[in-house]
Specification:
This protein is mainly alpha-helical and about 100 residues long. The chain has one domain. Helix content is about 45%, strand content about 0%.
Amino acid sequence: MKHWEYHPEYDETCFGCKAGTLQMNAGDAVRDVSEKKWNSELKAYESARNQGMQPAGTSMHQIQEAYKASETLGRAYNANNMPKTQDITKKSVEVMKEIGQL
């Protein structure tokens, strides 16, 4: 027999009624990034920061872009006051030097 047939109204003294209101929590299963990947990205970000870079974010893609931009610029990349990494090319670096931004 189904519980709701036996108890059509909610009864707070009934264990079956209380159990029917429980909701499951997926916990870490909801997270889309594994703990190992999360830690490796944070270590890479910390390493970039220790070298004077300021990536646009903590994802591995953004950190690698900051490394490439730093190499092209010849100095540490800072996402706060420099153009986006995809806009930094050898030609744009030459222009930045001409106008005194580097």
